[in-house]
């Protein structure tokens, strides 16, 4: 796909776009053609109304004969609610009979000691004592820092959402593996599930599934399931042909082949998918709490609403700690090899189950006498809250002027010119250029797709907002890459620094963005700059991680050859390692863009005027139509960017002969 | 909580004639600001004292109307005239949602400035002072115009129109949420930097920070609809923002299923002052909502027992 004049093509395209953008206003004035700048209202697709009437129909009239669609969703909600309520009772509330406040408690919940023992046991079972101590320690942290009650509520929703997401993903993945047309049909849906901002479909979900934790669980599953489907398909395809052959020779039926041969041999990869589901579920904790999930997410929101920065950080860190515990444990399960069975009597064979059982029984009995055994005593909790608030104040008072100066420079020299450039591009030319860029990189099919998707955005009247989204996303990604790739190189070259940097990135990604959104606003005021800082903080991680991974996976032999031919350190880096790592860097860039786009929806809470804001306003006003349309527009931008960068990475790989 | 439920059970057995209302729980909605949590918890505890079962459900302020219309949710304790009018009207029009009257609290929304700005812009709180000292409120991005931080776009408020109509040299910047709004206030207050922004009460901010609302020409419906009314004969919105009551609303089925509880809810009445004190207890002194409500109920037993209808 490389033309004869690649440089001339790109420069020409950019120059022309720049000219059109700079003079579009004059152009539309002299030609007296307002439609050049603004997409004419009468050409707009009446999509919002259509979506609204479709949803109204779905909620009120849709009917399968015996029952309505709404009955179906309510039935699903009831089925999901049952295990959730049982877990909640088990972990925190205690079992009781009767409704409302006339209820009488039958049995108390598990004590904090029992839950920590369980967690430790699971950690040890998954790998070894070290992991057991880590997982147990994480849970102990939750108790000591006074987050226990909320953490257990969050844990119960995670424990319900993850199995549904994982098993559902597995089944869909198997179906896709077996029937190619189903695979093809599902792919666009998976793309949309991952890229349409959750805010966009919260309203329809609330209407269909009712208010409360179940609606939040459904939204969480929709968001967290797609990676499991994709990984399942990949994992099943990756099972060696010989293994399948062996299964056939042994006379397996189709079902036996799947469940006794394919799935077990793909288990390690499948566990990676489960791990992804867990992490994404925890990502959703905050948004889920906005529609009634409660727990740690609600604590973060409530603390920030009263500007209790310390409280927000503590609850946020509790989410991080829980993520660490679940992540490490599930990774260990993925790597776990079968071990020899212990022999002896029941107690000898199951040392952990026995211990856990004994601890549960003992704390249950003791808890009736000593309340401190049942629930962690309040006066023993620690808090770092005031420290964070004071630290924030100190930074604000002493360094604000410095930040302000930096901000003004970046605003004037980077943000505003870029904003003006994108804002000026006439919509018709924008669609054409997008098609040309995509076509040049990935072939005419991709070009057509890109032009169509951008055309959709223009046709819904969201073009100006979409341009603000692209500008904010573009600038943030640029800065994240400029910071992230050097950090990644540093992490790859110096393993010691690498551990610290990658650990920091993990924390930044699991820490709910709300926690740093408010301090960012305090230091940079409401506006595009604050949004950009928040996006950069969130989207930095993949740039760093992929760069480090890419550099580390350059074949040893190539580096050896470079050293032999007398390369200096910097020559090694620039001439060998970086070009070889280019596909990884591009994939990292792709991920950075995806995260930036998903974060832009959150930064609407600071006050940006882009598609994210449209989605958020629709949510705040409970209007399903505009929310879905704006959400789809965000998704389309993400899909176009994703396809283009994947095509670039593929091209680079082919050139390197990988 | 458990003790209260035992007390409620005892009450129910003591007055068997009460059992006219359904024993199903009444679902009250909780939002994410402390004032509303206090109002709702207070109502819930009073209902429990009257022998009803109560369940609290977390729901979004506007999104909850979908639930109130279908009966998924039952009672919303704080719908502000200023921010909830549109949603209320739409819900009342369906016939499924009913108005249970005022809470007694009055919503105030207006431009507000911290006390230290009074020296830098003499003449405040009179709005005309803003004409001469817009530059005192300027930031590098807006200079020479002043910067006014408005609420989320969804709140409406017509501030762009107001600035235009009153010929103020201000640029309106919208915060995305009220958390962002108060974060900026907190930061500016710590540095004693210039700021003027949208504040509302009852809220903890006017209790925590010293400052005052700007006094615009008083609001009248005609001022919003008729350009010729007001200071500027050629423009509407040349006045302050409307003030109004905070309403209680409910699903229509509530009145049939729990007639006595409905009357109890209608009787609920509390003033801005009392509410302001409780909000400050929670947000500034770090007390829990339950503690604060229990303390108020201990101190005002006569007030709330008078609400109860049996």
TrEMBL record, chain A:
SUPFAM superfamilies: MetI-like. GO terms for biological process: choline transport; glycine betaine transport. It is found in: Cell membrane. It is a multi-pass membrane protein. GO terms for cellular component: ATP-binding cassette (ABC) transporter complex. Keywords: Cell membrane, Membrane, Transmembrane, Transmembrane helix, Transport. Residues 147-330, 466-645 form the ABC transmembrane type-1 domain. GO terms for molecular function: amine transmembrane transporter activity; carnitine transmembrane transporter activity. InterPro entries: MetI-like, MetI-like_sf. PROSITE patterns: ABC_TM1. The chain crosses the membrane at residues 102-122, 129-148, 154-177, 198-225, 277-304, 354-373, 446-463, 469-489, 585-607, 627-645. Belongs to the binding-protein-dependent transport system permease family. PANTHER family: GLYCINE BETAINE/PROLINE BETAINE TRANSPORT SYSTEM PERMEASE PROTEIN PROW, GLYCINE BETAINE_PROLINE BETAINE TRANSPORT SYSTEM PERMEASE PROTEIN PROW. This is ABC transporter permease.
From TrEMBL, chain B:
It holds the Pfam family OpuAC. Coiled coil: none annotated. Residues 24-298 form the ABC-type glycine betaine transport system substrate-binding domain. Keywords: Signal. It comes from the Bacteria. Residues 1-19 form the signal peptide. InterPro entries: ABC_Gly_betaine_transp_sub-bd. GO terms for cellular component: ATP-binding cassette (ABC) transporter complex. GO terms for molecular function: transmembrane transporter activity. This is ABC transporter. It comes from Seohaeicola zhoushanensis.
């Amino acid at each position: 796909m490389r033309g004869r004049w690649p440089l001339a093509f790109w420069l020409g395209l950019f120059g022309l776009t720049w000219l059109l953008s700079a003079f579009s206003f004059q152009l539309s004035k002299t030609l007296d053609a307002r439609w050049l700048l603004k997409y004419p209202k009468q050409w707009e697709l009446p999509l919002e109304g259509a979506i609204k009437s479709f949803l109204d129909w779905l909620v009120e009239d849709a009917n399968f004969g015996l029952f309505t669609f709404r009955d179906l969703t309510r039935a699903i909600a009831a089925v999901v609610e049952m295990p959730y309520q049982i877990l909640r009772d088990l972990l925190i509330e205690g079992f009781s009979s009767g409704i409302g406040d006339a209820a009488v408690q039958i049995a108390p919940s598990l004590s904090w000691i029992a839950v920590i023992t369980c967690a430790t046991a699971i950690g040890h079972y998954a790998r070894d004592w070290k992991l057991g101590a880590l997982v147990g320690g994480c849970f102990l942290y939750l108790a000591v820092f006074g987050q226990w009650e909320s953490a257990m509520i969050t844990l119960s929703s995670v424990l319900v959402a993850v199995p549904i997401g994982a098993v559902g993903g597995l089944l869909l993945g198997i179906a896709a593996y077996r029937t190619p047309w189903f695979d093809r049909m599902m792919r666009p849906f998976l793309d949309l599930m991952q890229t349409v901002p959750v805010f966009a479909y919260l309203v329809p979900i609330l209407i269909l599934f009712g208010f409360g934790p179940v609606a939040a669980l459904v939204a969480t599953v929709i968001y967290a399931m797609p990676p499991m489907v994709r990984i399942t398909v990949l994992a099943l395809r990756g099972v060696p042909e010989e293994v399948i052959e062996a299964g056939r020779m042994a006379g397996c039926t189709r079902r036996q082949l799947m469940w006794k041969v394919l799935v077990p041999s793909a288990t390690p990869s499948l566990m990676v998918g489960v791990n992804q589901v867990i992490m994404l579920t925890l990502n959703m904790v905050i948004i889920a709490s906005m529609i009634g999930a409660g727990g740690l997410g609600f604590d973060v929101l409530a603390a920030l609403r009263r500007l209790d920065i310390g409280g927000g950080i503590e609850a946020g860190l509790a989410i991080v700690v829980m993520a660490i515990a679940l992540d490490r444990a599930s990774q260990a399960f993925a790597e776990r090899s079968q071990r020899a069975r212990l022999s002896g009597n029941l107690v000898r064979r199951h040392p952990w189950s026995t211990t856990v059982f004994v601890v549960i029984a003992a704390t249950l009995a003791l808890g009736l006498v000593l309340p401190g055994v049942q629930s962690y005593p309040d006066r023993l909790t620690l808090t770092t809250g005031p420290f964070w608030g004071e630290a924030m104040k100190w930074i604000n008072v002493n360094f604000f002027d410095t930040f302000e100066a930096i901000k003004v420079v970046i605003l004037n020299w980077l943000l505003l010119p870029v904003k003006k450039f994108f804002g000026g591009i006439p919509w018709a030319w924008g669609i054409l250029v997008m098609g040309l860029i995509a076509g040049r990189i990935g072939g005419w099919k991709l070009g057509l797709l890109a032009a169509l998707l951008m055309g959709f955005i223009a046709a819904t009247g969201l073009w100006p907002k979409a341009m603000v989204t692209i500008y904010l996303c573009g600038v943030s990604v640029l800065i994240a890459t400029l910071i992230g790739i050097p950090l990644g190189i540093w992490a790859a070259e110096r393993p010691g620094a690498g551990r610290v940097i990658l650990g920091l990135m993990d924390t930044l990604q699991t820490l709910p963005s709300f926690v740093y959104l408010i301090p960012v606003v305090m230091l940079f005021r409401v506006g595009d700059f604050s949004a950009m800082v928040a996006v950069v903080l969130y989207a930095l991680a993949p740039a760093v991680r992929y760069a480090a991974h890419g550099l580390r996976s350059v074949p040893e032999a190539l580096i050896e050859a470079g050293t032999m031919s007398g390369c200096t350190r910097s020559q090694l880096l620039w001439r060998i390692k970086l070009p070889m790592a280019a596909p990884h860097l591009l994939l990292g860039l792709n991920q950075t863009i995806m995260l930036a786009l998903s974060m832009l929806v959150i930064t609407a809470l600071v006050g940006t005027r882009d598609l994210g804001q449209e989605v958020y306003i629709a949510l705040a006003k409970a209007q399903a139509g505009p929310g879905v349309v704006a959400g789809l527009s965000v998704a389309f931008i993400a899909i176009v960017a994703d396809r283009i960068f994947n095509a670039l990475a593929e091209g680079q790989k082919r050139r390197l002969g990988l | 909580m458990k003790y209260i439920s035992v007390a409620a059970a005892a009450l129910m057995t003591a007055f068997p004639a009460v059992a006219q209302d359904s024993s199903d729980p009444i679902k009250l909605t909780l939002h994410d600001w402390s004032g509303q949590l206090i109002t709702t918890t207070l109502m819930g505890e009073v209902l429990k004292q009257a022998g009803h079962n109560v369940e609290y459900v977390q729901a979004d302020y506007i999104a909850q109307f979908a639930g109130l219309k279908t009966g998924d949710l039952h009672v919303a304790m704080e719908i502000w005239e200023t921010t909830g009018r549109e949603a209320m009207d739409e819900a009342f029009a369906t016939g499924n949602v009913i108005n249970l009257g005022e809470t007694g609290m009055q919503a105030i929304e207006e431009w507000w400035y911290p006390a230290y700005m009074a020296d830098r812009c003499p003449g405040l709180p009179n709005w005309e002072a803003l004409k001469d000292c817009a530059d005192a409120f300027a930031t590098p991005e807006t200079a020479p115009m002043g910067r006014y931080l408005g609420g989320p776009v969804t709140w409406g408020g017509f501030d762009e129109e107001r600035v235009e109509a009153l010929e103020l040299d201000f640029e309106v910047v919208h915060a995305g949420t009220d958390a962002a709004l108060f974060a900026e206030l907190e930061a500016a207050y710590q540095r004693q930097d210039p700021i003027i922004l949208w504040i509302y009460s009852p809220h903890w901010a006017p209790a925590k920070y010293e400052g005052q609302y700007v006094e615009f020409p008083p609001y009248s419906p005609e001022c919003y609809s008729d350009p010729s009314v007001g200071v500027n004969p050629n423009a509407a919105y040349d006045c302050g923002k409307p003030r109004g009551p905070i309403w209680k609303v409910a699903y229509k089925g509530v009145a049939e299923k729990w007639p006595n509880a409905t009357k109890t809810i209608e009787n609920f009445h509390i003033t801005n002052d009392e509410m302001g004190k409780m909000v400050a207890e929670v947000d500034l002194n770090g007390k829990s909502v339950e503690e604060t409500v229990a303390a108020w109920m201990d101190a005002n037993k006569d007030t709330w027992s008078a609400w109860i209808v049996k």
